[in-house]
Amino acid sequence: MTAPILDAQGLNYAYPGGVAALRGMNLSVQRGRRLALLGSNGCGKTTLLLHLNGTLRPGAGQVLIDGQPAGYDRASLAAWRGRVGLVLQEPDDQLFSATVYQDVSFGPLNQGLSEPDARERVREALAALDIAELAERATHLLSFGQKKRVAIAGVLAMQPQVLILDEPTAGLDAPGVTQLKAALERLQARGTTLVFSTHDVDLAYAWADDVAILGEGRLLRQGGTVATLADADLLAAAQLNTPTILTLAAALREPGRPWPGGQPPRTAEDLVACLGERHDPGRF
Amino acid sequence: MFPIDQYAWTHRWRGHHPAERAVLAGGMLLIAITAPPLATAPLVVLAMAGATVAGAGVPLAAWLRVMTIPAGFLLLSLPFLAVSLDLTDGVALTVSAAGAWLAVAVGLRSLAAVSALAFLTLTTPVAELVPWLRRVGVPQAVVEIALLIYRLLFILADCADATRHAQEARLGYSTTRRGIRSLGLLAGTLLTRALARTRRLEIGLAARGFEGELRVLASERTLSRPRLAAVAALLFTVAALGLTLDRALH
């Protein structure tokens, strides 16, 4: 197996004032996967994400990039941030320019690209998020969902190998979530590794390849989505609910029968498909 | 929230190169200041109103509102130009024909100049003019601060609005006394929020490789020769018509 593209080992971090946010946190990000960080409020999700692009420096432990310990000098940080892009939860915290076009051009210019190359990056990033028509718009006149996508485009324009998103669906309406997921799936299809934090267990269950369950500044477990989220004790320890679809499916399944298709349904569509195959009315 | 800004971002000529509008406004301003005002100024006002409302599609009401305040100042101050203080024989205020003529001339000239600026204001966001400052030699740091202020202004105004609504919902402005207290709290909240926000902005900028210089690219817009020709033709027509009318008047 190849080395994880990002590997956090035993991170400790305390905010000024002494509140310990990370206590021996581990996380390994596998290339090309879609990894969800799940945990209740205050479990250290955001703090961990800020370590993954070098914004915060751990009190103990280390972050490895492709197996190499990350450096915190200026040149290393610049290279790190070119490879690992971070999208903050609140887009207004990230968009600083008057127009969308200007804002998205910021990252590529910082990478030292020439003007024509930077313009090409801007065009590609806007196209990837399906917001080319917003280019000339004022950032402060956009809707929340549009701002969110512009914020992602601004990071994407740097062509990072890993895209880290803090609560990407928070505050988005249903069409906004659908559009965002579609855009992120396109990125993943082109080889971008995705890491996102969420406290929405249903989203993680339906959509992530892998999940990492965090609690009180530690990694409780990391693994494949279905196997990990089926562990009720683990979820209880992390103060998370069982995914709704999984609860329903478990209640509807005939005791002892294997799951149709070998694994429990992950989406409402899966569940409906299972119900179509039932033998006993009301069960499958 | 800021209607002028809103129009500046959304009018019909938004996609055109801002220099085309700057040349039009600048040209009209020059005509307004130099040409004989009685005949020319009304033409300039008419042309600028037409460009703003019929051309760029800014509502007439918005144009009138922008014009009202400077026009009000003019109305208040011009009578003082017409009146002269005569101290030769005690204190006497006289209105001379020359003074009245001067007041009318200055008034028309100013109104024409204001109409040209109103056109530019309503069709060009501040943010689009700021990069020009860089070109005329204003230091990069000042330009960056101006741009950040422009952006944060809207965020903080939203924040202030939301906080005020929350305070109102809990009767924070039910009496004058409470209102003053609530306003003080609002100001304090805004300051701490602004500080927290700049912290987070810093993280966001650092994540995109910020190393002390906010460099961005303006979108590429091409100057349109036909439009520039139209601008030149309009300027020439207004100037020529104004001069001809002026000669006819004398």
Features:
heterodimer, A: 284 residues, alpha/beta, Rossmann fold, 2 domains, six-stranded mixed beta sheet, four-stranded antiparallel beta sheet, 10 strands, globular, B: 250 residues, mainly alpha, two-stranded antiparallel sheet, 9 helices
Shape of chain B: globular
- The oligomeric state is heterodimer
Query: What order do the SSEs of chain B take from the amino end to the carboxyl end, as H and E?
Result: HHHHEEHHHHH
Mean pLDDT of chain A: 92
CATH topology of the largest domain in chain A: Rossmann fold
Low-confidence region ranges of chain B: none
Question: Rg of chain A from C-alpha positions?
Answer: 20 Å
Give the topology, please.
The complex is a heterodimer of chains A (284) and B (250).
Chain A (H helix, E strand, L loop, with lengths): L5 E9 L5 E10 L4 E5 L6 H8 L7 E6 L2 E2 L4 H10 E4 L12 H11 L4 H14 L15 H13 L5 E5 L7 H16 L3 E6 L2 H7 L2 E6 L2 E7 H5 L2 H6 L6 H9 L15 H9 L8
Parallel strand pairs in A: 3-8, 3-9, 6-7, 7-8
Antiparallel strand pairs in A: 1-2, 1-4, 4-5, 9-10
Helix pairs in contact in A: 3-4, 3-5, 4-5
Chain B lengths: L2 H8 L7 H17 L2 H19 L4 H23 E4 L5 E4 L1 H27 L2 H10 L4 H30 L6 H32 L17 H25 L1
Antiparallel strand pairs in B: 1-2
